[in-house]
Amino acid sequence: MVCWRCFIASGFITLLTLGCDDWANSAGKNTRQIVQETNVAQLFSEAETTQKAEKFFQQGNFFLNSQRYKDAIAAFEEAITIRPQFAEAWINRGNALTKLQHYQEALASYERAIAIQPGRDEAWYNKGNTLNTLQRYQEALVSYDRAIAIKADKYEAWINRGIALTKLQRYQEAIASYDRAIAIKPDKDLAYYNKACTYALQNKVELAAENLKKAMKLVPGKYEKLAKTDSDFNKVRGNRRFQELLQ
Question: Of 113, 127, 184, 240, which is least surrounded by CB within 10 A?
Answer without folding.
Answer: 240
